[in-house]
């Protein structure tokens, strides 16, 4: 039995020697060799057979059991270490094969714990995760800022034309209308008392700059500061903010899209089932972003035209739901459908040209209309370039393997999506200011 123990030890030493000699093999062949040599189930077969042969009759049983356990433990440690190494494209299971121009640095079927911690390691999905995760926190901050700070100012420039309006108005008609409506106003005396209790003089004095209140000069910069401060004080009294739900719907859609995309790129390598779920979540996020991006321009452009407002909002909502349902089909994820996926989402965005042209027709000549349309054209260009880069897999198709870690098409696509969404946020601020000041 001592002879058998020596044979086992020699076998272990020979296995490690083979591992050292395998360093001259190509990386992928060496990886497969080590997996076969030290897989835990293989490493313990000999020990199990020896246990059966020994049957507890030899005095060296404990020594042989120790050798078996040592061999098994060493094999398991090496197996665990090798299993969590990054692999190359041709070693991937079919469900993880998507871009043949990215040759290496793949995570393949890792346990969930290692997958979660890989957010802090370098692989070919690291920047895909972080570009949209950072974008999510950017839009979360913008949402909080919008809820707390907007609107802030009132447009005092519009008052400069007030004398001209009075000169052109029919004063006799205006007088008769005022006399008609005044008796119907409730409790004018109580209203006057409430206004007098507002302490307007104290408010105005407190908002004046110190250097202006302590001197009598009329410096232009001081007067400009006074104008801004007065505007901020008076704004809550003069502005009745229009409803914000379309704008916050867009911000919610953007955050959902960015967070879903980040989670998808982090977790999809865990298993085929996880990849299926995460990719559907990712597609739903893209459809949600495109659909909710329509809500601010459509609602604020056509709020005075309920028929068109409901028509456009209903159309894009139904289209978004239909896109999500189509994305549930397993065939939708196949690599050969990459161009179809990009075309479908691009077509959703392109359908926004109808409401934009309609808006220009109705409100031609208003500065806000041209301002928002400029933002929307820029947003469409960013999304369109992103879809083109995604579908053509530029630049990695020109130099396969050179952009595995940084600079490949999906990362560029992510950056362009965040930029396009931010441009749309800026357009939304213009819509809010326009409708807050003018209403219908």
Automatic annotation (TrEMBL):
Entry GO MF terms: metal ion binding; signaling receptor activity
Keywords tagged on the record: Membrane, Metal-binding, Transmembrane, Transmembrane helix, Zinc
Subcellular location: Membrane
Chief location of this protein within or outside the cell: membrane
Membrane topology: Multi-pass membrane protein
Binding-site list for Zn(2+): 265, 410, 414
InterPro entries linked: AdipoR/HlyIII-related (IPR004254)
Similarity comment: Belongs to the ADIPOR family.
Protein name as annotated: Heptahelical transmembrane protein 4-like
Taxon lineage: Eukaryota, Viridiplantae, Streptophyta, Embryophyta, Tracheophyta
